[in-house]
Amino acid sequence: MNTRTTLRRTVAALAVAGAAAGATALAAGTANAMPTDFNCTSGQITTKLVYGGAGAGNREGFLQFTAKPGETCTLPASVPVDLVGAHDVLVNQQVPADAPAVQLTNGSSAYIPLHWTAIDPSSQQQTPLAIDVTAPQETTPRGDQSDPEITVPWSLGGVDTSAASHSVDVGAVTAGVAPAV
Known about the structure:
By secondary structure, the chain is α+β, with helices and mostly antiparallel strands. It has one helix at about 5-35, and strands at about 45-55, 60-65, 70-75, 80-85, 90-95, 100-105, 110-115, 125, 130-135, 150-155, 160, 165-170, 175. A hairpin with a 2-residue loop joins strand 1 (about 45-55) and strand 2.
């Protein structure tokens, strides 16, 4: 075996080893990136409304999202929220532009704070039937499809509808379990 043959074999072996290492790194990088790079679907999370307390006419509540067992996904800082059955109540999204997304993994939670007033007489209040949230994704990394609409029955009482106060303020998605009273 001469030097030229040895050199050719060494170069060929290094090329094969480099290609195999590159393919392995690419596959591992893709597998690791998939679960955290996808926004949540309605099928990956459970959603509930949590009472947050009342005082001096102010009311607080939270929409809490929890990842189902074995699921990993991301909620952007702002998700579309709407009220059902309270046509005189506005939804006011108050999410800072720099608010971060929140990753949910295997039972972890995040919540959206809600704030409104309820000091007007009952004739100037409306009680929503439900609160709707639109999940940011319809298809999971595995290809599972789900309806993006999440509807949670409203159980937090009336909301003022007077000219002075007639909105529910919706904050940014926040990591952790919703504060409860």
